[in-house]
Amino acid sequence: LLPGDIITGADDIEIASMTQLSDYIKSKRVGTKVTIKLMRSTNGTYVEKTYQVTLGARPEKNKVSE
To answer: What is the dihedral of CA 11, 16, 17, 23, to 10 degrees?
Structure first.
């Protein structure tokens, strides 16, 4: 992702908010492939782009270094 990208979909679901995207991603297992649709500004014009990504493990919250 680049600054200014607007995520519009994940697989066949229209995404209207970051909360909706987060909930959708959380419902998937590590290693699942997800198609992400986004709008990206190129020379002042937004262009639709589609990427397939493989979900990795989420970093642990509040992990204390030893």
So the answer is: -40
Domain around 23: 6-54
Inside any domain, residue 64: no
Q: Which of 52, 57, 62, 60 has the alpha carbon at shortest distance from 28?
A: 57
Tokens read off for 49: 């782009």
In this predicted model, what pLDDT tens digit does every residue of 11-47 receive, in sequence order? Answer: 999 999 999 999 999 999 999 999 999 999 999 899 9
Q: Residue 5 CB: number of other CB atoms within 10 A?
A: 14
Closest by alpha carbon to 36, among 23, 21, 47, 51?
51
Q: How many domains does the chain have?
A: 1
Asked if residue 59 is part of any domain, the answer here is: no
